């Protein structure tokens, strides 16, 4: 298990993953952690809920990166989704990794609790 964890931590220093789901810190080639995964989860949740990727689709990776860095995500319509869901997305998609909710805290979030995601 220790070897697996060390390998997982080492992967944090590489540039892997689906580009449009990368967190701002990954795009900037800054140090990153599990908070980057929380960002990606937030994008996936938003896309599953709305049926659309929350950033404007672009014709190049550079444009896509700039769109993400500029923070121009399309927020889901709050009239269609609960306040609890919207607050979860807001904390997952914070551009500053230190302010993003971590996994342990997320499991205590009311929206996840309401839907049985407790472990």
Q: What is shown here, in short?
A:
The protein has 119 residues and is an all-alpha fold. Helices cover 50% and strands 0% of the residues.
Give me some keywords for this one.
119 residues, mainly alpha, 50% helix, globular
The biggest sheet, with number of strands, parallel, antiparallel or mixed sense and barrel status, is: none
Could you give the distance between the termini? Answer: 19 Å
| Low-confidence spans | 8-16
Global structural class: mainly alpha
Following the backbone from N to C, one meets helices and strands in this order, namely HHHHHHH
Number of strands: 0
Helical element count? 7
Gyration radius over CA: 15 Å
- The percentage of residues in β strands lies in under 5%
- The percent of residues in helical segments reads 40-55%
Instruction: Indicate the mean pLDDT.
Output: 85
Coarse morphology: globular
Walk me through what this model shows.
There is one protein chain. 50% of the residues lie in helices and 0% in strands. Residues 8-16 have low confidence and may be disordered. Helix 3 packs antiparallel against helix 5. The chain has 119 residues and is an all-alpha fold.
């Amino acid at each position: 298990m220790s070897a697996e964890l060390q390998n997982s931590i080492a992967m944090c220093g590489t540039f892997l993953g689906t580009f449009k789901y990368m967190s701002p810190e990954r795009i900037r080639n800054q140090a990153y952690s599990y908070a980057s995964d929380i960002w990606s989860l937030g994008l996936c949740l938003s896309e599953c809920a709305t049926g659309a990727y929350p950033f404007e689709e672009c014709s190049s990776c550079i444009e896509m990166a700039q769109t993400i860095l500029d923070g121009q995500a399309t927020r889901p319509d709050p009239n269609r989704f609960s306040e609890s869901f919207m607050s979860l997305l807001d904390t997952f998609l914070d551009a500053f990794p230190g302010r993003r909710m971590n996994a342990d805290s997320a499991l205590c979030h009311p929206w996840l609790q309401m839907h049985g995601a407790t472990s």
